Amino acid sequence: MNQSIKHIVRDLDQLIPSSQKAFSAYNANFDPLTEEGLKGNEQYAPTYWVATAGVSPEDDGPLLGDINADIVIIGGGFTGLSTALTLAEDFGVAPLVLEANRTAWGCTSRNGGQGQNASGRLYRSQWIDRWGFETAKRLDFEIREGFDYFKDLVSSIDCDAQNGGHLYIAHRTKKLAFLENEDKVMREIFGYKTRMLSREQLHEEFVADQEAAGALLEPDGVGIHPLKLAFGYLKRARAAGAKIHTSTPVISWETRNGIHYLQTPYGIVKAKRVAVATGGYTPNGLHPSLSGKIMPILSNSIVTRPLTSAELKQAGLKSTTFITDTRTLRHYYRLLPDGSVQCGSRSALTGADANNPVHLERLKEGLYRKFPSLRGISIAYSWWGWVDVSHDMMPRVVQPNSNEAIYYAIGYGGNGVAFSAMAGRRLAERIMGIQRPQFELPIYQSPLPSHFFRPFRRLGQALLYRWYYLKDEML
């Protein structure tokens, strides 16, 4: 390295406070509704995925000093990395990814790893009710194509993939009619080879969930190790020319004469085009186009210690097919490759209450209801994370204002593991000005809706949780 370059690197390094040179402690109480932004440079949440992913691949570190950029992507999780991957590999451009903390620090390293042929929180029968048959069929074709794209990526990356589909468990007998209708819709309208399972068939072939009255089996579904998959995206994107800058939060954003001025702790990035891919960790006030558009919801997750073969047999855990139950505040769970069991569900209303032990105990009891023999098995990992739920329960991949070179992909509602791959691909195409007939679909055509009562949404959420509990468990 010549002396002038050494001098520049030394001067830029002095811009980083000593407290920022090592990762700071993980803030378990972060809340995107009450904080203006992430402080940045934090350690990962203590998830099973972080503990078992191995050494993080090399990234480009903090972005130091002022810089001009063509395309900037805010957020270094599944969506941001998929967008960068498509831009670099398919279009030969080199975007800058700005990640506030570490690669895949937010939703991507905290989810359940369930890659479903879905996106958003609405079922296909609800697509028909909302948009009619033709639009629902076109949306299904797009989601299915996205799932195939996800499977192609998974097949090229070592991410502990577990094929086997997805089970919807009827947690009460009254839920069987709902699943039977969904089975009929998926088979007769969309052509899927789904099938209904009785309680006895479910227990014999898959899992002896003691709550289950029956189940709907979807053949499409791949369980993955989300952080290993994200690391694979990272390596491919960087190999193709993308720059992934970690520990570089965007702390303010101004647009003047069509140029976006993104202030980071170490300088200003002047960008022509900006894409936002921050999921449930979208800071309040990041940009007006996203203000009040997401209802962040906390989800808890636990992983047991690895079970012995005798313990697995006693619990009736025979399959690695991943599972969701029919609660509105649903439980999702799966048997992992090492024999441990992962389970997740709702959590606290606020970040301040996230580490209240009552939420962990509620989730553990949910697991024990399903598998009584697991009571007393030690819990090896416990964490929580924010889910990006949109007000109409469906995601968006849009340019919200045609007069501004701003784009976002957000609002998966807990079903983003698989579809985020396609969302990133479509987001890259939108950034590059590609026109597709698919962009006439609702998830590509309109921005995220706002909500009249959003200043009171936490109060509304508390009331809804009580109603959902009554509907799920009592009524």
Structure, explained:
This protein is an alpha+beta fold. Helix content is 33%, strand content 21%. It is built from 14 helices and 19 strands. It has helices at residues 3-13, 18-21, 48-52, 78-91, 124-131, 133-155, 176-188, 199-205, 226-239, 309-315, 357-370, 419-431, 442-445, 457-474, and strands spanning 67-74, 96-98, 114-115, 162-163, 166-170, 195-198, 214-218, 222-223, 243-245, 252-256, 259-264, 267-276, 294-304, 322-325, 332-335, 341-346, 379-390, 396-398, 406-410. Helix 6 crosses helix 12 (419-431). It is globular. The chain starts with a helix and ends with a helix.
Key phrases:
475 residues, 8-stranded mixed β-sheet, single chain, alpha+beta, 19 strands, disordered N terminus, globular
How much helicity do the residues have?
A: 25-40%
Structural class: alpha+beta
Q: How many β-strand stretches?
A: 19
Count of individual helical segments: 14
**What is the residue-averaged pLDDT?**
93
Quick description:
The chain has 475 residues and is of the alpha+beta class. Helix content is 33%, strand content 21%. Strand 18 (396-398) and strand 19 (406-410) form a beta hairpin.
Layout of secondary structure:
Blueprint: H1 3-13, H2 18-21, H3 48-52, E1 67-74, H4 78-91, E2 96-98, E3 114-115, H5 124-131, H6 133-155, E4 162-163, E5 166-170, H7 176-188, E6 195-198, H8 199-205, E7 214-218, E8 222-223, H9 226-239, E9 243-245, E10 252-256, E11 259-264, E12 267-276, E13 294-304, H10 309-315, E14 322-325, E15 332-335, E16 341-346, H11 357-370, E17 379-390, E18 396-398, E19 406-410, H12 419-431, H13 442-445, H14 457-474
Parallel strand pairs: 1-2, 1-12, 2-9, 5-14, 12-19
Antiparallel strand pairs: 3-8, 4-8, 5-7, 6-7, 10-11, 11-12, 13-16, 13-17, 14-15, 15-16, 18-19
Helix pairs in contact: 4-9, 4-12, 5-6, 6-12
